[in-house]
Amino acid sequence: MAKADIVRLTDLSLATVSEHVDLLCQAGLLREEEFGASSGGRRPKLFGFNPKAGHIIAIDLESTHMRVAVTDFGLRILNSEESFDVDVAEGPEATLTRIKDLAFSVLAKAGIDRRGIKALGIGLPGPVSFSDGLPSSLSIMPGWESYQVRDFWKKHFDCASFIDNNVYTMALGERWRDPADARETMIFVKIGNGIGAGIVCNGEVFRGATEHAGEIGAHAHLRRAAPIPARRSLPGGGPPGAGEAESLYRAVRGRAKPGPLDDDFSLLVVRFD
Q: Of the candidates 95, 108, 13, 11, which has an alpha carbon nearest to the alpha carbon of residue 59?
């Protein structure tokens, strides 16, 4: 990315951007890469993250399984592991301890010292107050509401940690996975034990006033002429609107493509040109 691109995205002055870019290069976090295409004058110098500047731990937590990966600063996955030995219903302390143990295993097998971890991100299978980094109330996650997830990770890693709803992280990952086909506005629908959506608007996650935008399963009310036998139960054993949500589950699932866990996870991506 050129300095002019950063100016355009941030509305900062070129002098301010140049100062910060130079400082980040001196700290080894950024590096000069190739030159970009000319728009009539000199070709702009491009900057990118230095892959050797450190490592990042990425965690995807579902209700009964988890994935942990470690990447370099270029977001190249160096090692990853998956485990089904977890259940969010056990509470945050037990669940996060299992994740921590798996993370330590991933680092050990990759030969990475945890002192080199510069950031950690975790996606939770439910609503999150992103600005505070706190999980919100969800029936399948007893004891998680307002639990200080960041404080847990501070005990094990000397780095910043970021907590989000995993469907939001998946939506951003879908855009990042294929930049050539990325859309500025899209909806990513995830079907697991419940239904959730990550809404990307103008290239950014749309969270809404309560930061819970996209919680489809909690708000779905579809009318139908006759009851449809439920193929599986929804979280909470039938909260208000659960029958309607079951109809939505089956309707959306019919258009979704199988995910990596096939029967337990599917996704539907809707892009807007």
A: 95
| CA-CA-CA-CA torsion sign (263, 138, 187, 130) | negative
140 shares its domain with 78 = yes
Q: Name the residue range of residue 99's domain.
A: 53-167
Rounded (5°) CA angle 132-51-99:
45
31-74 pLDDT, tens per residue? 998 887 777 677 888 999 999 999 999 999 998 999 999 999 98
DSSP state of 132: T
* Inter-residue contact 192 to 265 (CB < 8 Å): yes
Burial of 59 (0-12, 13-18, 19+ CB in 10 A): buried
Annotate 137-154 with b (16+ C-beta within 10 A) or e (fewer). Answer: ebebbeebeebebbebbe
Cβ atoms of 255 and 268 closer than 8 Å: yes
Instruction: Identify the domain boundary among 31, 49, 67.
Output: 49
The predicted structure's pLDDT at residue 204: 83
**Is 237 a residue whose pLDDT tops 80?**
no
Predicted structure pTM score: 0.75
∠ CA 94-97-103, rounded to 5°: 145
CA-to-CA separations, 43 to 24, 34, 59, 260, in angstroms, rounded: 22, 10, 39, 43
